[in-house]
Amino acid sequence: MQLNNLISEITQRTGITEDQAKSTVAMVMNSLKSNMPDELASQMDRVLTGAGFSYQEVLADKLDEFKDLAEGKLKDLQRGAQGLIDKIL
After folding, report:
1. What pTM was estimated for this model as a whole?
2. Domain count of the chain?
3. Measuring CA to CA, which of 23, 40, 52, 60 is 20 to 30 A from 29?
4. According to the model, what pLDDT value does residue 45 have?
């Protein structure tokens, strides 16, 4: 459900104004997003704005994080190995 549709449905069902519904939705969204991982929070925004959910985007972000972590660990390992080689030679 898109954000505009959600706000419209809230105003129709509850009788509150559109501004009140927008404020309520924003408050609920911020509360939900503050308690979830950033990747899911950004996907929630995408879904509610009509852009849709992208598993590929979430996976690509996680793979990039893993790649960065692995590269850092590999560099640490290379430095450690080089230090051992230097001590031996």
Report:
1. 0.49
2. 2
3. 60
4. 74
| 71 & 36 share domain | no
Q: Give the integer Cα–Cα distance in Å for 21 and 25.
A: 6
Are 65 and 39 within one domain? no
Residues 48 and 61 in one domain: no
Structural domain span for residue 26: 1-53
pLDDT tens across 15-44, in order? 999 999 999 988 988 888 888 888 777 777
For residue 53, report the phi and psi dihedrals to the nearest 5 degrees. Answer: -90, 140
